[in-house]
Amino acid sequence: MWERQAAAWRNTALSRPSVSPLCALVMAILLSMLLVPSLCLTQDQWDKHLPTVEQNSSLNMKFDPKTTKLTWDCQENATYGECVLIHKEKGQIKKKVKDKECQCTFQDCSLHGGVTLTVEVNINQRRISETLVYLNPGGEGTAAQNFSCLIYNADFMNCTWAKGQAAPNDVQYFLYIRDSKKKIERECPHYLKDSGTHVGCHLQDLSGLTSYSYFLVNGTSQEAGIQFFDSVLLLKEIEQYNPPNNITVHCNESHCFIRWEKPRTRKTLSIREFQYQLDIQRQSNTGSSGNQLIVVSGDSGNKYSFPRPGFRAKHTVKIRTADARKAHWGAWSQPTEFDQCL
């Protein structure tokens, strides 16, 4: 059908040699349309032929690492889908964007490895996606390294780090700590130094810190830009517990019973969040002559019993504490002596 119609147009054009150039142009256009075998396009092909968003529709994205807030220019007649933060360790972290809001705030996460941020926007029924890459400014290898923190005696915390391998000699580091609600930020009140360079921090006041806290070590130098190091720590995972309190031992004709009280911790914890290790040693005239190492879960009622041996001997027991995952065993208690003879 398409071929016959095209032939008819050609015959008409040939039978009218006096046709004007304009008419010939119109007929050529119509002829080319008729020779197209199909005008059906797939959705992908159709999208490619839709008008693209002009360059002046750029969202002008900005990222504030201090507040972890991503902002962009509001566009007229725009609706927003979601923000995405791509983290090297955690992968994609997505946030829904509320209508008429041109921002989204992510939860605290480490940024020293750099992140990629993306926003999807719908403008006049056209979806556009823009990406912003945030990189850690400064020279490679200048950031503090081997960072760690430990809470002890329930009220104190030490954080330590080492000078970056590529850091210049005049580098100076500073530690800042922020609660997870981003309301309280403090600088280290008392630095530990090595040849004048800050390599640690001692804190005696942990009030105001929430379960998750954000730690930032940045640096300054006259010779080069210094990269920062940051970390988000769950405080109960870095607390080293004291030995349990009030250890007592009582023996009857068949068993010995050891009891104790859970130690004081920074935050009140349930008994299930503790583990205890008991070191029971039998004493002889020449010193220790045998010991037992026993792990007892916190839900045991803070007690342990064992059969009384059939011989007379003095024994000692000492106990130490860890969290339920046994990440950090604390120090041993002072030995408690008990005599198994009645």
CATH superfamily of the largest domain, called what?
Answer: Immunoglobulins
What's the SSE pattern?
HHHEEEEEEEEEEEEEEEEEEEEEE
Q: Please estimate the helix content.
A: under 10%
Largest sheet geometry: 4 strands, antiparallel
Q: Provide the low-confidence segments as ranges.
A: 1-19, 25-57
Approximate shape? elongated
Chart the SSEs and their pairings.
Blueprint: H1 2-14, H2 21-34, H3 43-49, E1 62-64, E2 69-71, E3 78-87, E4 91-96, E5 103-105, E6 115-123, E7 126-134, E8 145-152, E9 156-162, E10 172-179, E11 185-187, E12 191-194, E13 197-203, E14 212-220, E15 229-234, E16 245-251, E17 255-261, E18 274-284, E19 287-297, E20 303-307, E21 314-323, E22 336-339
Antiparallel strand pairs: 1-2, 2-5, 3-4, 3-6, 6-7, 8-9, 9-13, 10-11, 10-14, 12-13, 14-15, 16-17, 17-20, 18-19, 18-21, 21-22
Helix pairs in contact: 1-2
